[in-house]
Inverse folding.
C-alpha cells in the first residue's frame, strides 16, 4: 500500500493508475469570490476562468500569473472552446450563451426560447458535429449576487442544444437544476449534474447519464450519487473516467460510475478542466481560489 498524502483519498485500487501518490495540490490563484468556468488555452499556455460575483474573467499563466481577461464579463459562468478554438461563455447577466470570435467580436448563440428569455445559462460544452450544449438553471436570477434578480420566463430548467444551423432545442426538461455537463470521449454519453439540492433537500445530488445520437437524447438514469454536497462542473479523461466537482473536492468516477477516489480540496469545488503542457494537469476552480494537480491521465 502506497502512502497517500492528506489531499488524496484512494477508494478503489484503480485510482493508483490515475493519480500518483507523490503529486501535489497547489493553489495558483487566490483572492477571488466564486471561481467557475475553467477552460485551457494551450495555444496561449493559459487558463481562462470566471469569478462570477466579481463580474470578471481572469487569465492565469505559469509565466505571468493572474491578470484580468475581461471585465465586466456579464457575470460569465461556464466556458468552453468550440472546434475552431473560439471561446464560448454562459453569461448570467445577459442570460445568454455568447461566442467570442477570432476578431474579438461577440456573437450571441442563444438568448430566448419559446417566447421567453433563458433563465441563466450555467455551463456549456460542444460536440464534434458543431452543436453547442448548455444547461439553464435559475441560479443567476435568484439573487443579485451572481447576476440580476429576475422572475423566470421559462417553465423549466432545461438542457439545450444549439444545432450547427443555430436552431435551439430543449433536449432534457426534467431537471430541478441542471448544472455541469460533459460528454464521454466517444460522445455517445452525455453526463449532466443535478444540483437542485442547493434549494430543495429532496432533490438527489446525482449525475445522470444520457445516450446521445446526433440531436437525439434518451435515457437519463442515475450514473452516480455525490456523497458530499452536490455535483457542479465535470470533465472526462481519455479513458472515460468522469472527474466531478463536489463540496469536498474532485471525485473520480469510473465509466461504470464507481467512485475510485477523491482529490480533497480545502475549499468547495465548482468546476475543473484538464490542461497544461501535457494535458494532464487538472485545474480546479474552488470558491476563492484555483488549484492545480498533475495526474496520470489526459483530458478527453
Ligand atoms: Mg456550474
Amino acid at each position: 500500500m502506497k502512502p497517500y498524502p492528506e489531499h488524496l483519498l484512494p477508494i478503489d485500487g484503480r485510482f493508483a493508475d490515475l493519480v500518483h501518490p507523490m503529486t501535489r495540490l497547489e493553489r495558483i490563484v487566490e483572492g477571488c469570490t466564486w471561481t467557475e468556468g475553467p477552460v485551457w488555452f494551450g495555444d496561449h499556455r493559459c487558463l481562462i476562468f470566471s469569478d462570477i460575483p466579481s463580474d470578471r474573467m481572469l487569465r492565469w499563466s505559469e509565466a505571468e500569473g493572474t491578470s484580468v481577461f475581461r471585465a465586466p464579463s456579464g457575470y460569465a459562468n461556464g466556458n468552453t472552446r468550440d472546434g475552431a478554438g473560439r471561446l464560448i461563455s454562459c453569461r448570467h447577466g445577459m442570460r445568454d450563451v455568447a461566442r467570442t470570435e477570432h476578431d474579438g467580436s461577440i456573437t450571441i448563440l442563444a438568448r430566448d426560447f419559446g417566447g421567453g428569455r433563458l433563465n441563466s445559462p450555467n455551463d456549456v460544452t460542444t460536440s464534434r458535429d458543431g452543436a453547442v450544449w448548455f444547461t439553464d438553471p435559475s441560479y443567476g436570477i435568484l439573487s443579485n449576487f451572481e447576476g440580476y434578480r429576475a422572475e423566470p420566463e421559462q417553465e423549466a430548467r432545461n438542457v439545450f442544444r444549439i444545432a450547427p444551423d443555430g436552431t435551439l432545442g430543449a433536449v432534457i426538461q426534467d431537471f430541478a437544476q441542471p448544472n455541469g455537463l460533459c460528454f464521454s470521449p466517444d460522445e455517445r454519453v452525455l453526463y449532466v449534474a443535478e444540483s437542485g439540492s442547493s434549494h430543495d433537500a429532496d432533490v438527489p445530488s446525482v449525475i445522470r447519464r444520457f445516450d446521445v445520437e446526433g440531436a437525439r437524447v434518451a435515457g437519463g438514469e442515475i450514473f452516480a450519487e455525490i456523497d458530499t454536497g452536490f455535483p457542479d462542473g465535470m470533465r472526462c479523461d481519455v479513458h472515460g473516467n468522469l472527474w466531478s466537482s463536489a463540496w469536498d473536492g474532485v471525485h473520480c468516477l469510473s465509466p461504470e460510475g464507481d467512485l475510485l477516489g477523491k482529490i480533497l480540496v480545502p475549499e468547495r469545488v465548482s468546476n475543473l478542466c484538464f490542461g497544461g503542457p501535457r494535458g494532464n494537469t487538472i485545474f480546479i476552480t474552488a470558491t476563492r481560489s484555483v488549484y492545480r494537480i498533475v495526474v496520470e491521465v489526459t483530458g478527453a
About this structure: Residues 238 and 300 are 4 Å apart (CA to CA).
